[in-house]
Design goal:
Distance between the termini: 72 Å
CATH architecture: Alpha-Beta Complex
Number of domains: 1
Number of strands: 8
Number of helices: 17
Structural class: alpha/beta
Strand content: 5-15%
Largest sheet: 8 strands, mixed
Radius of gyration: 23 Å
CATH class: Alpha Beta
Strand order of the largest sheet: 3-2-1-4-7-6-8-5
CATH superfamily: Spore Coat Polysaccharide Biosynthesis Protein SpsA, Chain A
CATH topology: Spore Coat Polysaccharide Biosynthesis Protein SpsA, Chain A
């Protein structure tokens, strides 16, 4: 009886663990192949004259420390001033954010709503106002209040729009990469994503994913499909919503936004937990829709998007797999799929390459030597995602927005100077 019970238990373990191993194996190989597309840059036509008009929208909640430098920066981009305007949405502010933004030259719209709180609602409110204005714009560009923007940003977006792209995400750099070990490791994660995921997807002809700021969206797309993104990750939500309608997100590697990374581990934990909650929420609504659409239409772009949305579930499955492997006498009882497909040494080589990913990304984009110091504690940052994802799943229905306090009121010139010093 005990033998039969043990046998039944092992069969159940096989039923669970073998598919899990196939999923882990697939993701490991898939992202390895995808990253190869990020090793090169495409030559693109950039001979378009400035012609597109832009409304630059900044959603700001109590951002008095950083809003002034951003407005100054935006009003001095290398693009005809007559072709763009800067709007600041002072959303439920109880400080002097609106007054500072207005004093620096922005067109300020104040919004107060205690029930529909958060960036997604603030943006939708502002878009509705833009559509009703006499002056019309070809595209809307969304920034966060803590950002600073490279001078060529609108020139790059003008080129992309003239090429026919309708939604574009920019390169997300760091305003304060060397303040603390947390800002350093956080920055590495973004640099890695920029090069070996975002650029890779663009080179492979897939759809990119919006990153919360530096997002350029053609006005006709917004008007046709509506914003409607109110989750804790409104950027991911709108990316997937647009893709369901067949509108891909593109990538502009030369258009750069510098944003402020959290200074402490606790701050980064809270921010990433909010992202995890939103990712799980969006995955629940769009994973099967995009997967079915990809299979039905035979288009890998949709399947790739579904693969991206499955990542939180992958983290939980991989963690479960790892913990079960730690149980004595259990591991040898079920089929090791990955060992059957590839020799043990092959997996060692592949894992070593994965650990080199950040180094490759930093080198390809010419990041300063100080950036590599963060690689020492980078695994701590990465593995901390495990409990964060589990908490995000548990609290996925909690839609309360947690505001990240920004304090680094640097000018764009100071950021450029800082980067030059770090490179030398």
């Amino acid at each position: 009886m005990d033998f039969l019970s043990d046998l039944a238990g092992l069969r159940l373990l096989d039923i669970i663990m073998v598919p899990v191993q196939f999923i882990i194996l697939f993701y490991t190989l898939y992202y390895f192949v995808l990253s190869i597309f990020g090793l090169f840059r495409k030559k693109e036509t950039k001979e378009f004259k400035p012609q597109m008009t832009f409304s630059l929208v900044v959603a700001a909640h109590n951002e008095h420390a950083v809003i002034g430098p951003l407005v100054d920066n935006l009003l001095n981009l290398d693009y005809p001033r007559s072709l763009y305007d800067v709007f600041v949405v002072a959303d439920n502010c109880d400080d002097d954010t609106a007054a500072i933004a207005r004093r620096h030259g922005a067109l300020v719209h104040q919004r107060f709503n205690n029930t529909r709180r958060g960036k997604g609602f603030a943006l939708e409110w502002m878009f509705d106002r833009l559509f009703k204005m006499d002056k019309k714009y070809d595209a809307v560009v969304i920034f966060d209040a803590d950002n600073l923007v490279k001078e060529n940003f609108l020139t790059e977006m003008n080129n992309k729009l003239c090429q026919g792209h309708r939604i574009i995400q920019c390169y997300l750099d760091s305003k304060n990469p060397f303040d603390t070990w947390v800002t350093n490791t956080f920055s590495i994660a973004f640099w890695l994503t920029n090069r070996l995921l975002q650029l890779a997807r663009y080179n492979a002809g897939l759809s990119n994913v919006l990153g919360g700021t530096g997002m350029c969206i053609a006005t006709d797309v917004l008007q046709k499909y509506g914003w409607g993104a109110h989750s804790l990750t409104e950027d991911l939500e709108f990316s997937m919503k647009a893709l369901v309608h067949g509108v891909k997100t593109s990538w502009a590697h030369e258009a750069v936004v510098y944003d402020e990374k959290p200074l402490t581990f606790v701050q980064s934990w809270r921010q990433r937990k909010r992202w995890a909650q939103g990712q799980v929420d969006v995955a629940g609504r769009y994973f099967f829709v995009l997967l079915a659409k990809g299979i039905r239409e035979g288009k890998w772009t949709y399947i790739d998007a579904a693969i991206h949305l499955f990542q939180p579930a992958l983290v939980m499955l991989a963690t479960m797999f790892m913990l079960i492997n730690l149980i004595p006498y259990v591991q040898p009882q079920y089929t090791q799929v990955y060992q059957a497909i590839m020799p043990f040494t092959g997996w060692q080589i592949l894992q070593a390459i994965q650990y080199l990913y950040p180094v490759v990304a930093l080198a390809l984009d010419g990041l300063p030597w100080r950036a590599y110091v963060g690689l020492i504690l980078y695994p701590v940052f990465i593995y901390s995602w495990i409990p964060i994802v589990f908490l995000g799943f548990i609290h996925r229905k909690d839609k309360n927005w947690s505001h990240t306090i920004h304090t680094r009121g640097l000018s764009y010139q100071e950021v450029v100077k800082q980067k030059k010093i770090s490179t030398n």
